[in-house]
Each structure stands twice: as structure tokens, then as C-alpha cells.
Amino acid sequence: MQTRYNITLDEDISKELEAVAEELGEKKSHIIEKALALYFDLLDLKVARKRLKDLEKGRDRLLDADRVWKELDL
Questions:
Q1: What is the pLDDT, as a whole number, of residue 70?
Q2: What's the chain look like in SS3?
Q3: Sorting pLDDT into bands at 50, 70 and 90, what band is 57?
Q4: Rounded to an integer, what distance in angstroms lies between the CA atom of residue 17 and that of residue 54?
Q5: Which of 5, 67, 72 is nearest to 36 (CA)?
Q6: Percent of the chain surpassing pLDDT 90
Q7: Total-model pTM
Q8: What pLDDT does residue 39 have?
Q9: Mean pLDDT of 9-15
Q10: Of the candidates 14, 45, 11, 12, which has an alpha carbon nearest to the alpha carbon of residue 32?
């Protein structure tokens, strides 16, 4: 399933996207989709590092999985 979006891009980004799409013979939407997937991977790493830092600074804590499952009656 696909979802359609209307987006606005900076002119320089738009020109670069056009050039890359033409050079590679790929659809612009496919290039944007790949770029977003890579960006989301980077964001996952950023979130993981933040959570680790929160643990180290005592702003968050870990719960034992067995305890959680027991409390959820799983």
C-alpha cells in the first residue's frame, strides 16, 4: 500500500533531486523514499543514544521483562 503526499522542497534540493533521478533513471518518489528510510535509521540511532544517556543519568530506568510480563499477565 502506498500513501500519496504533496510536499514542498527548497529549490536547490529540488534541482538536485531532478538531476539524481535523471542520472540514475529512477523515479523521484523512489529516491525520496530511500532517503527517508536512511534518515529514519539515523533517527533511531539518535533516539537510542538519548535513551542510553537518560539511563546513565538516572532520568529513566529499566524494568525486568519477567516482571512486566507478569504484571501484564502474559
A1: 92
A2: CCCCCCCCCCHHHHHHHHHHHHHHCCCHHHHHHHHHHHHHHHHHHHHHHHHHHHHHCCCCCCCCHHHHHHHCCC
A3: very high
A4: 38
A5: 5
A6: 99
A7: 0.73
A8: 98
A9: 98
A10: 14
CA distance 6 to 24: 23
Cα separation, 30 vs 19, whole angstroms: 14
Cell of 1: 500500500
- The average confidence (pLDDT) of the chain is 96
**Cell numbers that stand for 45 in this block:** 540511532
Domains of the chain, by residue range, sit at: 11-71
Average pLDDT over residues 23-40: 98
Closest CA to 24 of 35, 8, 10: 35
Residue type, 41: D
Joined grid coordinates for residue 20: 539524481
Q: Please, are residues 33 and 39 in contact by the beta-carbon 8 Å criterion?
A: no
